[in-house]
Amino acid sequence: MSDDPRSRPPQVGEERALLSGFLQYQRETLAMKCAGLTAAQLRTPAVPPSGLTLIGLVRHLAEVERSWFRRVLKDEEAPPHWPGPNPGEFAEFDVADADPAEAFRIWEEECARSRATVEAAESLDITGSYGEEVFSLRYIVTHLIEEYARHNGQADLLRERLDGTTGE
Prior knowledge:
single chain, Four Helix Bundle (Hemerythrin (Met), subunit A), 5 helices
């Protein structure tokens, strides 16, 4: 991955721009890890017993964006894109018949909604809730940076296993 297509986060600026920049950088890292792969490669699991796949990560992060920004922060009715047979199951990781084009489209739409929500918010101090727990927008954006960073580490290992490509 010699040409780095990612937008570098600002090194100086106000908090919202810095946090948004780092989150976008992590989003673009996931896209970069998946770039140029076939549908079969995107559905190829890691090593047994793990069934983790790159397309499973894309679908999972679409659900993470949906859940935190739409359901928690905005209290929207936003059902899962890939519901499981039992509540709380991570059905987005069941990728035997996953359509990568659909997964990327949904992920990109959720990312766009999330970016718009952050941009339109009057402050990073606005809150949403999940049950009795209250979360600020600042917490949500920071949590998503952490979530992407963790999964991008997994994506790096998956990509290396598929074709030997490594990189940040």
